[in-house]
């Protein structure tokens, strides 16, 4: 029924658009500021901007009071933290190259096995240079990403509507809704910083066909690529949806728009190629551990769109009610895709009111938001409809892309398409607020304020459980000792604590045989199984082949504050490693033992040197 209403409203909107095709674009689309001077502009935007700046701190309370010492849900954010720290280090170190990061030695291009985040290098360099605190750096990037993503969407929606409250609501929906909050433990998924500016450049180009806006679109798309390749792909899909939804605006100029589009694509390809080639080479060179179960587990179920994390103040109860079991239940969490009820209600309201109230800019936002929401919702289900743990035989629209579009299978988590749904709901909400204000002029200011308040209530969370993280002199003493050693290649046991070893390596940047990334080479798991049999012949051969020089064995992790604990079932294995290595001083020379960790020089590698990748000697 909603789609039927929308088709009727779209026909009426298209009729009005035909009348405007040969006229000048509306002021809202060209971005002409309201009269009143600079002071009026500042006053007009002061409150919305302040709210968008403060919103990330309220969303993640009490993290803002512990930016340099604590993190929320440590896990993937250790990968993103390490990534930025490595990039800053590599650009300053003559001994290391940018792409050959210090994990999975001696595999090359290991940085291109995970997120890029190059746009944060200047900020990372500033924080690490002044405070030498990677926790502060990562938390600053986290909160800044949420903040600037909201401000970008606010900018776009304000230029379209000239309504600060409508634009404020759009910015909050885009960055703070329950679905976005659920992505915080995965920082590379919550930084669509340049989506709003990219949307604005596209719409302004379609309205004016001025090349400067096409150039701006290429710039912001490239910056999004440097921020998150995942979200860059989703941005391109969103821009395509907007382009199709704006067909009446440019259909009479298809040749001009087409040529400019081809030129823009060519320039964008030239810009991203130096950064994207290492990822392509890795994808071709390495067999990856991308099991079919991952695609099944990470595809959305209908119930996922009703489920928020248990920390949400209003809807936390939905986690237990709507959770659907996955194939790998112990490894992959459910998808929390609930965006809040208010954005959905406003989408429906915008469609309904748009049939009776004429406002071109608001109607455009509702139309754009509707189609973005439809695409994001349908693609989140993945190639097949999933109603329970397993997939059904019902194909979804994404099936065509997974089957026929080269490289699309890299998107192994279809539920992340929910960011497109969120963007659509944000645009539709802004348009709906303008239409409601026009429908009820006496409540013009009150409507926006009430809706912002109500949505804020949907977003509020309980105080987050934070984890104190050691840094500097608080990390294990053995890691500080390693910084003084000349050896370059180390392997640490137990092997399963790869994220911790990557984090500790920030203080010495030794080359690790350990490691963990978003895309894992199958070879790593095969070698890990062999290394776990130390000191078997298979383990020794693997150590020689990987170029190991030092072997670090942890009895326990002694940090300040306490951070990690070995599992009880791992302690016998650690004692076995130590006893066996101590029996072979000719092969494993003891170098260090502080009671918490012991270090051995692996002498079996001296006659089997393994050359480092170029630039890492």
Tally of DSSP helical segments: 25
Dominant shape: elongated
Main beta sheet, described?
5 strands, mixed
Could you list the spans in which at least 5 consecutive residues all have pLDDT below 50?
A: 1-32, 607-617
**Number of E-state strands:** 9
What would you call the quaternary organization?
Answer: single chain
Mean pLDDT: 89
Report the helical percentage: 40-55%
- Biggest sheet, spatial arrangement of strands: 6-5-7-9-8
Rg to the nearest angstrom?
26 Å
Tell me the structural class: alpha/beta
SS strand fraction = 5-15%
Terminal residue distance: 66 Å
Task: Provide a quick synopsis of the model.
The protein is an alpha/beta fold.
Polypeptide structure, described:
The chain is of the alpha/beta class. The chain contains 25 helices and nine strands. The termini are far apart. Mean pLDDT is 89; it is low at 1-32 and 607-617.
